[in-house]
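Thread title: Can someone regenerate the structure for this chain?

I was given the following input by a collaborator and told the matching structure tokens would be attached. They weren't. Posting the sequence so someone can regenerate them.
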Amino acid sequence: MTNLDTFMQAYYEAIYFTDTGEDDQPPTGAELAPEAKKDSEADCAAFYLKSGLEAIYGKGAIRQAGIDFWLTRNGHGAGFWDGDWHEPMASQMTALSESFGDVHTYLGDDGLIYIN
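Best answer:
Regenerated them for you:
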């Protein structure tokens, strides 16, 4: 598994942690639609390349960065800005995450999770 794969897997875990299982959310265990995976992979790859994470923090931070990218871009109560990342990196990663805009999940008629 590459570091980018680790980053994306953590991003997907954050999606499932924050956006499934509640009454107004897709049910736990629902799968991401192929389009949602494709869009997520593109966003993750772009963020990963622009961030320089690996060069700065090494492999150990890759998983947490994937989680924090999802949390930060969507305005959850945790993320790059909450004190676990050193400045100025925390502010830079927060700004980069927010530049991708927030996205929302929904359950399609086919039972798959979509992201808009």
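The beta strands are 105-107, 113-115.
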